From TrEMBL:
Keywords: DNA-binding, Transcription, Transcription regulation. Pfam families: TetR_N (PF00440). InterPro entries: Homeodomain-like_sf, HTH_TetR, Tet_transcr_reg_TetR-rel_C_sf. Residues 29-48 bind DNA. Residues 6-66 form the HTH tetR-type domain. The keyword Transcription regulation applies. This is TetR/AcrR family transcriptional regulator. The keyword Zinc does not apply. It comes from the Bacteria. PANTHER family: HTH-TYPE TRANSCRIPTIONAL REGULATOR YJDC, TRANSCRIPTIONAL REGULATORY PROTEIN.
Amino acid sequence: MGRTRTFDEADAARSALGVFWDHGFDGAAVPDLEQATGLSRSSIYHSFGSKRGLFDAAVTTYLDQVVRPRLAPLQAQHVASDALAGYLHGLRRVMADHALPLAAHGCLLLNTATSPIGADDALRDIVRDYRRELALAIARGVEAARPELDSEASACLGTACTAHVIAAMTLVRVDAEGAVALLDNALTLLTAPIAGAARASDDAAAHSSERGMAGRR
């Protein structure tokens, strides 16, 4: 009969997340992981298979408890018109607070993408999926905030906002002011006039005018 575990793997992954977020996969020493989780090396390996297995569990925790709660308003069935602005303002507040992990260390997944372990196929897929999830959420936020835009202009604005967010999360650990400035620019873009929207407005006005003239003939 196997020995009953006296710890929760989810709690262990949550505790390990802090170590990996601070130091990255390669910089996270097993003794530090033992201290953070309260588990022995043998317990870590028995439960997660390896340090890498514990890292994978920590990444899942990061996505489920850090990333997705912030994206939730942009992934709801009905996205509010101010949801994207709220997301950007929330990121701005977090990045301006140097005591918080995102400001101090940047995004765990983007850091992983540029580290040696980022060449791993499974992790590469996770980072790609994360980027797609972020881009889709932001695109829905743009559609809700700027319903007057045509599909091309909306897609361009969504891509620009996504690029600003990714750049800010990558830059923040070395240049918090620059990261905040990028988010401010994304907020400006979100409300700025766009050529595609202007053309659509002009076309609609011209069409309306033509119909009015036709009605008077």
